[in-house]
Design a protein that fits this description.
Layout (H helix, E strand, L loop, with lengths): L1 E9 L5 E10 L4 E5 L6 H8 L7 E6 L2 E2 L6 H4 L2 E4 L11 H9 L10 H7 L16 H13 L5 E5 L7 H16 L3 E6 L2 H7 L2 E6 L2 E6 L1 H7 L4 E8 L2 E8 L3 H4 L6 E7 L4 H9 L5
Parallel strand pairs: 3-8, 3-9, 6-7, 7-8
Antiparallel strand pairs: 1-2, 1-4, 4-5, 9-10, 11-12, 11-13
Helix pairs in contact: 3-5
Length: 282
């Protein structure tokens, strides 16, 4: 679906942002592009979605070289949610979406009202101007804009930004539903929870270079201490014990009244990111 070879980009002299990126994204995959602010995440997304030109290297989408694809049909297969939503503030959610949908074939557009309902948009704000919306409500309209064309490829930049916990869960469920339909998702974020829960694979990018690409599960297993901490009670006192995983069969037979919990000592995704890149996410 996406293939990138030796991708470079500069915003000006001595301002090179990307330093020869190489990666592939398979059809129906959710691919996370993770890194701190200024690492090149959004620049890469803008190149892949056709916004930025004059890059170095090769970029292909749908098996076609981006350098030679500028026709409407090619880009009509793509949906984009930007980190900073582009909406007309004096128009309502419905007016914005009806306007943007006018650039696409009618048979490609989903029912906008049904889509907003799916995104749990407040009905009493449907006809109010975007300027009166909270950040979370604007994010719902922007996600509707990205999804309404039934895209084959979705570029999502910080999709859960500005959402409360229930809204974030809703968006993750919707992204997973889109993947089940066969949609490919390129997710740029520094939210490690989104990455771990959603992504088939992630790339850690720092200062315009990729440090590692792998599945979140594999990264956690590879960097694990391979031990568990057991919380238990003995003689009415709470205690804990840390054991190596490969010794559990022999080690579980220790004095205790009740086992309260067992926690694996896997590193967090943020800890893994710091380990590979030496940088924090923000």
């Amino acid at each position: 679906m996406i293939e990138v070879k030796e991708l470079t980009f500069s915003y000006g002299k001595n301002k090179q942002t990307l330093h020869g990126l190489d990666f592939k994204v398979g059809e129906g995959e959710i691919f996370g592009f993770l890194g701190p602010n200024g690492s090149g995440k959004s620049t890469t997304q803008k190149i892949l979605s056709g916004i930025l030109k004059n890059y170095g290297g090769e970029v292909s989408l749908f098996g076609q070289d981006m350098a030679y694809r500028t026709n409407k049909k090619f880009f009509q297969r793509i949906g984009v949610l930007f980190e900073f939503p582009y909406l007309y503030a004096n128009l309502s959610a419905l007016d914005n979406l009806n306007y943007f949908s006018s650039f696409y074939p009618k048979d490609q557009i989903q029912d906008i009202s049904a889509l907003l309902e799916r995104l749990e948009f407040k009905k009493d704000y449907l006809h109010k101007p975007v300027s009166s919306y909270s950040k979370g409500m604007r994010q719902r309209v922007s996600m509707a804009r990205a999804l309404m064309t039934s895209p084959d490829l979705l570029f999502l930049d910080e999709p859960t930004s500005g959402l409360d916990p229930s809204g974030a869960v809703l968006f993750r469920n919707i992204i997973e539903e889109e993947r089940k339909k066969g949609t490919t998702v390129f997710l740029t974020t520094h939210n490690m929870m989104d990455a771990e829960l959603l992504c088939d694979r992630v790339a850690f990018v720092v200062e315009g270079s990729i440090a590692v690409i792998d599945a979140p599960k594999h990264l956690k297993e590879h960097n694990s201490k391979h031990q568990v901490t057991i919380e238990y009670t003995l003689d009415k006192k709470r205690k804990s014990k840390t054991l190596k995983i490969n010794t559990l069969d022999q080690s579980l037979n220790f004095p205790h009244d009740q086992i309260l919990s067992i926690h694996s000592q896997e590193p967090t995704m943020e800890e893994i990111f710091i380990q590979y890149t030496g940088r924090r996410l923000s």
